[in-house]
Amino acid sequence: MRRNIAFLLGTVTGACLTVLVAGPQGTNLVAAAKAAARSDTYNQLNLFGSVFERIKTSYVEKPDDSKLMEGAINGMISALDPHSRYMNDKGWSDMQETTHGEFGGLGIEVTMEDGLVKVVTPIDETPAAKAGMLSGDVITQIDDEQIQGMSLEQAVARMKGPANSKIRLKVMRKGSAAPIDVAIVREIIRVRPVRFKADGGDIGYIRITRFNEQTTDGLKKAIASISKEIPPEKLAGYVVDLRNNPGGLLDQAVSVSSAFMNRGEVVSTRGRTSEETQRFTARGGDITKGKPLVVLINGGSASASEIVAGALRDHKRATLIGTRTFGKGSVQTIIPLGAGNGALALTTARYFTPSGRSIQAQGIAPDIEVLQDVPDELKGRTDLKGEASMRGHLAAEGTEQAGSQAWVPPNEKDDKALNAAFNLLRGGSVNATAVTAAKRAVPN
C-alpha cells in the first residue's frame, strides 16, 4: 500500500509540473525558480566565506586555515549519512592499506555514531577480539583523550600504532552501569579473510571474516583443499560463515557469490542517475559443482556479506541460518581528490538483491532463525540495533527492521546456529522451536 501511495503522489506532482510548464508563463516561472535556487546557494556560500574570514581575523588564537577547511568539509559530509566521509591524505592511505589486508593496530571494524566511535565487529584472532571487545561497544576515550570532536579518521589514526605498543580504551557497553577500561597491546594485523576446515569428514566449513583483495583467492584455495581432503561422494556440502563480517569490497562480494553460482544476477545498484544504476552478474561458474550450501548470518553481517547472502538465497542456492543481518545497503563510491588532497567516500546508490529487494535498513532475514544461548553476564549486550538505528541513515524502501543478535559462542559445541547447519546438511532436523521463517530444503 505504501508503494501505491508513493506512486500516486508522484503522478499528481508530475501532472502539476506539466500544467505549470505548459501554461503561458510556464517557461519563465521555471527559469525564475532555478535562478532563485542558485541565488540561495550563492547566499549560503557567501555566508560561509564571511564566517571563515571572521574566524581568521577574530578568533582568540591564529587558526590553521587547512584545519578549518578540513573541518568544514567533514561537517558538510557528516550532514549526509553515517557512511559518507572525507579522508585526508593519510586517511586515504590508511584505507588503501586496510583493503590490501595488512595494517598495524587493534583489529576492530568501527563506525562513527553520535560523535563517538562504535564497534561494528572485532576481527577474529586480533588483539581487540582477545581483549574481549564486542560488537556494539562504544569507545569514548583513547589513552585518556576524549573522542568527542574527532573525525572517524582521526580516531582510527590514534588507535593505530607500532606493534607491541600499548593503548587504553574507555568503553561504554550496553548493560554495564559504568564505563569499562580495556588495555590492548597493538600487533601487526594480517587479516586472513578466509579460514576453513573439514568437519567430521563430510562437511566443508569456510569462515569469511571480511571482503578484501585476498578474499576470493582464499575462498578458492579453501574449496580446493576441502575437495582434496573429502572425496566428492562423501562431501555432504559446505557451511559458509559470514557472521560478524562487516563487509568490504563490492567486486569481492560479486566474485565470492559467483563461486557458488553458474549464472544470474548477484546484486544491482540504483542511484539518482542512470550512471549509478548497474547490474552485476555471476561469472566463472560454480566451483563447488552444485554441492548443498548453508550460509550463517547474524546482526554483525553487513554490506558485502548481505550481498552474498541475498544473492545465494534469491537464486535458491543456499539456506540461510542465524539472525537478521545489519541492513547496510548503501553504496559508497571512492572519489580520489588529487595528489595530497585525500579522497571522498560518497554514498551514491542503494544495493538490491536479485529479486529486487532493498537491503538498506531492512537487512536479510534468515530462512531458519536460530538464537544463541547468551551467557548471563553478556545478556542485553550482544544485540545490534542495525542500520535502522543509526542517526541520519538512508530511509528504507519499505518497513525498517531492527538489528539482531550478534553473539557467536567461542566454543563450537555451544554454537547452535553452526550445529543446526551441520544437522541440516547431514539430513537431520533443526530444532522446531528455532524456526521462524519458512523452512526450505537445501538445494542440490
TrEMBL record:
Alphabetized GO MF terms: endopeptidase activity; serine-type peptidase activity
InterPro entries, A to Z: ClpP/crotonase-like_dom_sf, CtpA/B_N, PDZ, PDZ_sf, Peptidase_S41A, Tail-specific_protease
Entry's family note: Belongs to the peptidase S41A family.
Keywords of the record: Hydrolase, Protease, Serine protease
Pfam families, A to Z: CtpB_N-like (PF22694), PDZ_2 (PF13180), Peptidase_S41 (PF03572)
Domain PDZ as annotated: residue spans: 92-160
GO CC annotation: outer membrane-bounded periplasmic space
Source organism: Bradyrhizobium lablabi
Name of the protein this chain belongs to: Peptidase S41
Alphabetical GO biological process terms: proteolysis; signal transduction
